[in-house]
Design a protein that fits this description.
Beta Polymerase, domain 2; 5-stranded mixed sheet; two-stranded antiparallel sheet; 4 helices
Length: about 120
């Protein structure tokens, strides 16, 4: 499996996660590598999908991930899920309630303003 194939499938899943999230009443904001690419129109290869959700969405979010074939696991910063694709995996990392910046060590609270101000 090539990186290009994995990325195409990841982008399809990203679209499905966001669309299904809307149907389930779950607000999600894209962060990480795909967000960088969307905003700067440059290329940054990424192997995972990084999102943010509110703490109140957590129960529905876990159910959604199971429904989409991403068995959820709790982490210190939120929820992760992985789905097999060919010989590899597509990984979802969802920050819940706060965004942790590993490069600086800072944590930023997730507020309703983040979702209100996010671009579609």
């Amino acid at each position: 499996m090539s990186e290009a194939e994995l990325e195409i499938e990841s982008l399809k899943d990203l679209k499905r996660v966001v669309e299904e999230g809307e149907k389930w009443g779950i607000k999600l904001v894209l962060i990480g590598g795909y967000a960088v690419r969307a905003y700067i129109k440059g290329y940054r290869f990424t192997k995972d999908i990084d999102l943010v959700a509110t703490r109140r969405a957590l129960g529905n979010l876990k159910a959604l991930l199971r429904f989409l074939g991403y068995p959820p696991r709790d982490t210190e910063f939120g929820v992760v899920g992985s789905k097999r694709f060919n010989e590899g995996f597509i990984d979802l990392h969802i920050s819940v309630g706060k965004i942790f910046d590993m490069s600086t060590g800072f944590a930023y609270p997730v507020t309703d303003d983040l979702f209100f101000n996010a671009k579609n």
